[in-house]
Design brief:
Elements lengths: L3 H20 L5 H15 L4 H27 L15 E9 L4 E6 L2 E7 L10 E8 L2 E6 L7
Parallel strand pairs: 3-5
Antiparallel strand pairs: 1-2, 1-4, 2-3, 4-5
Length: about 150
């Protein structure tokens, strides 16, 4: 007959797997791995405190190692768009960029976009800027450093 703790840990593992399957939020999947570790520890006769420490330690370790990677590749809020290709590109300022007014526009990739300065400094029309990020339909830009004459 199997040790009672084997059944307890199997129950904990099954509950964690059920919660993960229902929520799909990467919250309890780590406890599944920790629970399986505790099942094996109980099966091979480890003490209950050792089983508990293994469960907690392996769950935390698994979360610390895998969660950042999982969030990077499975972030449900990040929606890639074709506009992402604009990031890092150079754009021509067509309307003075002044965050205080607020005003500003740039021309890039055949389109005119509303623009704001990343560092808050005003950028006059005619300057070349680099697109740093997007916020909604606005491009956040930074003045390009002048290339020194040789």
């Amino acid at each position: 007959m199997l040790n009672v703790m084997v059944w307890v840990w199997l129950g904990v593992t099954a509950l964690a797997a059920f919660v993960e399957a229902v929520t799909l939020t990467l919250v309890s999947v780590w406890c599944v791995v920790g629970g399986l570790t505790a099942v094996f520890a109980a099966y091979f006769g480890a003490s209950v405190p050792a089983q508990l420490l293994l469960f907690i330690g392996v769950s935390i370790l698994t979360a610390a190692i895998v969660r950042p990677l999982a969030k990077k590749y499975a972030d449900p809020h990040k929606v890639a768009t074709n506009a992402d290709r604009l990031l890092g590109m150079a754009a021509k300022v067509t309307e003075d960029i002044d965050n205080a007014r607020p005003s500003g526009a740039v021309y890039v990739d055949g389109k005119t976009w509303t623009a704001r300065s990343a560092d808050g400094e005003a950028i006059p029309a005619g300057e070349t800027v680099e697109i740093e990020r997007m916020e909604g339909v606005k491009l956040i830009v930074r003045a390009r450093a002048a290339v020194p004459a040789v």
